[in-house]
Amino acid sequence: MSSPIPIYSDFTQTQLSIELDQIIEGAQLTIHFQPIIDANSGQVLGWEALCRGPSDSPLHSPLVLFEMAARFNKLSKLELIVLKKSLMRFKELGLAGLLFLNFTVDSVVTSINFHREIFDELQLNGLSPNQIVIELTETRATDDLFALERGITGLKELGFSMAIDDLGEGFASLKRWIKMLPQFVKIDRHFIDGIHKDTLKQQFVKSIVDIAAKAGSKVIGEGVEEEADLRSLRIQGVNLIQGYLIAKPCYEPLSTVETRILKLLESTRPNFNSAPINLSKKANTITAGNLAHKTSVAHPKLSCKDVISTFQADRRLNSLPVIDDQEKVVGVIRSLEILRRGTEKYFNEIFGARSCTNIMDVNPLIFDVSTTLRSMSEMISGLDDRLVADGFIVTENGRYFGSGKMTDLLKAVSDMQITSARYANPLTQLPGNVPIDEQILENLNSQAAFVVAYFDLDNFKPFNDVYGYHAGDHVILLTATLLANAINQECDFLGHIGGDDFTVIFKSADWQARIQTILSKFDKAILSFFSEETLAAGGIITQNRQGVEILHPLVSLSAGVVPVKPNTISTPAELSSMLAETKKMAKKTPGSSYFVDRRGPKN
């Protein structure tokens, strides 16, 4: 049994100061890494390095450790030790992606040697600045914005990316965000916790996402612990996720995302979020492989000077993928960036003979060869302007397959969006009544068997009356997501009739199991939308016109289902009438349920 961690409040200030000095002098720190993942692609964007003091020390907690370091004016020394150990451990583990390192504003502003120290440590560990994100925190207010801007500019010129931590309090004010123009913005976890049931938090996060899109920043949702919060964040447009729900900080983290997390990400994917859902054959048969072609590539052993010569010899080249001996993609080099850097004073003297990996971006846009056009359209939402010129890299079984032009991808996505948006529902962007009828008529004329399900929310009006239309929209979006995730997108069709009504045309043989899955997942997910009072009461309480309280059951989902055999139904209108009847039958059963019409067509 391990000994309890000493409580720092039991120690005198002198004892704590001595303990801090011993930790710094002996580098007695343990580094843990927590992944930041891209929820759209399921890939690790990067890792935040987090330190712990000795397990038997009153300064074991990082919060206490840094509080004492600030109190005894030892922050810069402590941060230098954390930097050294983080870089060594990151290199030792061979982790791919970006490394997020926390530094106080004091270090960036007041430390004369800060830039040189961090650059020297990178070189000792064979890492480059473009692999590092400097994440700024603040222990006390900083009024010298000029000094802050000067320090940040110096870091950016060296090739470092910047991140603001805890947007919403302290240092991370909107004023300083605009002044810094960081590549990443982390939203304070206060606005993350319980966001699924707090409309003000939802509006705040949505505003941040909108501002970030204009400022060229990527938003990271930090401290995500609940599935319902993850789903709400993704609805608001936050797709870079960090938190215990994904993975806890770990001394030996897994280098890839676990299968259970990939399934979680897929189940919370808001397919309506970035582009109108189009389940046509074109959206699912055009893949990244179709858009890829062979291009020039660079090897990690190629020098910066040689890469500059390559770009100068071929002005049509916008970027070069960097591919190692195992045909793995390790990064991308941008022509504009290296040609600009090549004109800097002393660049050739310092970097000319060094590996081109010193000037590459380790986080290029990569698609698997089988990624569909629809999936690619979701993943390029909020795309960094630099990537438009880069294009994208395509891999097959993790190896380099080819490169694609962003203009080709955007044209294909645009064609898809124009087609699907003509009659799309404005909330979910799902096909509306006109394309639904067209799809039904096409299936009727094909003389093939299919199944149509009409989904409708039960007790939705009382929910809207009590929780408001904004929460109601989120329930509709939840329903759209569950339906989209449950169908077979190769052969099934999903449409939004309007309001809380949806239609699914199934060609899947296992349609009944899919419907059961939809209803089961809905019953679990919907609970997060209710207050504790509503759940305790077992329903939603409203008052009628006479002031009498009425208890309405919780929101549920019903479906009327009509199997269609060849030559049995002539028109979409006839089928619609049958669906309306079966839906009424389904709604007679309390809770989420479905009813299948076994009678066949009327004579």
UniProtKB/TrEMBL annotation:
Endpoints of the signal sequence: none
PROSITE patterns in the record: CBS, EAL, GGDEF
Gene3D superfamilies: 3.30.70.270, CBS-domain (3.10.580.10), EAL domain (3.20.20.450)
GGDEF domain mapped to chain residues: 448-599
Taxonomy of the source species: Bacteria, Pseudomonadati, Pseudomonadota, Betaproteobacteria, Burkholderiales
Protein name: GGDEF domain-containing protein
Domain EAL stretches: 13-263
Entry keywords, A to Z: CBS domain
Native source organism of the sequence: Sapientia aquatica
